[in-house]
Amino acid sequence: MDLKKKIRNVPDFPRQGIGFKDITTLIGDAAALRSAVRQMRARFAGISVDKIAGIESRGFIFAAILAYTYQVGMIPVRKPGKLPYSTINEDYDLEYGSGSLQIHSDAVQKGERILIVDDLLATGGTVAASARLIERLGGIVVGCCFLVELDFLNAREKLGNYRIESLVHYKSE
Amino acid sequence: MDLKKKIRNVPDFPRQGIGFKDITTLIGDAAALRSAVRQMRARFAGISVDKIAGIESRGFIFAAILAYTYQVGMIPVRKPGKLPYSTINEDYDLEYGSGSLQIHSDAVQKGERILIVDDLLATGGTVAASARLIERLGGIVVGCCFLVELDFLNAREKLGNYRIESLVHYKSE
């Protein structure tokens, strides 16, 4: 299935000049949702995974389904103030200013193999921060999986040698 | 499986005197996550469902897995400003002030049977708002499914005749 056809382009969101890739049309379509999950699994075939980390909040959608199909647990990577227990924190740069992400300090056990999942790979700042959080706890990032990648933002330069798989690519804005 | 044992109680979060029910320990446990999904399915056995609505953002986790296992689409119910396309809005009361939830105005087709999913049923304000959103678009709410219910907040009084199923109950704070 050509998943790109299931994604809606919304012009000028969240601000003028940005074409937003709206994945709600894809996840609202049963066949497209299943096809996306199947394709994600295929991209990481043969790689053993102990846990799936999902980045708040659309990342939770595919991370949860993948955790279920892999029969592993899911780790939420969240914005500050959302996780109730002891956390660790990593900052990342935004276009103006910076943001932070957190995980529970007991979310990853040493040596666990973690697949990071989000809906969209843009500049890569949140993914790189998520990878640092996992590695600080002794986890091994076995890959980063996305539904959509905005190739023109060159996130891969920021993500070094991690295995990155995205199902749908946009070459230009 | 006794799911309650997989939920961590975090005292004084988000503020003093509140015992927060931390479900990250449950979703991080592969067997508990699968058991929860199986139990949710069992509670709605025999009821036909066209789509699953998940309430931002922990609600996305179980809504996504249920959509996958039911082989239907998932609808995100989100805080204002997050959904890029045309939306409708419903307000709900908070302890101090009010909040709002939105769905895309084309997310539900007339007559579609929708199961609403969230991690926690507290006062029921967000669920009632979600049900109103779905019904304004002509959808039929076939039930509301939660991992945890805080019985002492009496949400069921607010939710009228909807079928409500929660896997884990807390009788007192």
**Mean pLDDT over all positions of chain A:** 97
What top-tier CATH class of chain A fits best? Answer: Alpha Beta
What is the CATH topology classification name of chain A? Rossmann fold
- Strand tally of chain A: 9
Keywords for this structure?
about 170 residues; two-stranded antiparallel sheet; alpha/beta; Rossmann fold; homodimer
Give a concise summary.
Two copies of one chain form a homodimer. Chain A is of the alpha/beta class.
How would you sum up this structure, described in words?
Two copies of one chain form a homodimer. By secondary structure, chain A is α/β, with parallel strands linked by helices. Chain A has a single domain, classed as Rossmann fold. In chain A, 27% of the residues lie in helices and 34% in strands. The first copy, chain A, is built from five helices and nine strands, in the order ββααβαββββαβαβ. Chain A has helices spanning 24-27, 30-43, 59-70, 125-136, 155-158, and strands at residues 8-11, 19-22, 51-55, 73-77, 87-93, 98-104, 113-121, 140-150, 164-170. In chain A, strands 4-3-7-8-9 form a five-stranded parallel β-sheet, sandwiched between helices. Chain A has a two-stranded antiparallel sheet with strand order 1-2. In chain A, a hairpin with a 7-residue loop joins β1 (8-11) and β2. The longest helix of chain A has 14 residues, at 30-43. The two termini of chain A are 23 Å apart. The A-B interface holds A 8, 10, 13-14, 20, 22, 24, 27-30, 33-34, 37, 51, 54, 56-58, 60-62, 64-65, 67-69, 71-76, 81, 83-85, 104, 107 and B 8, 10, 13-14, 20, 22, 24, 27-30, 33-34, 37, 51, 54, 56-58, 60-62, 64-65, 67-69, 71-76, 81, 83-85, 104, 107.
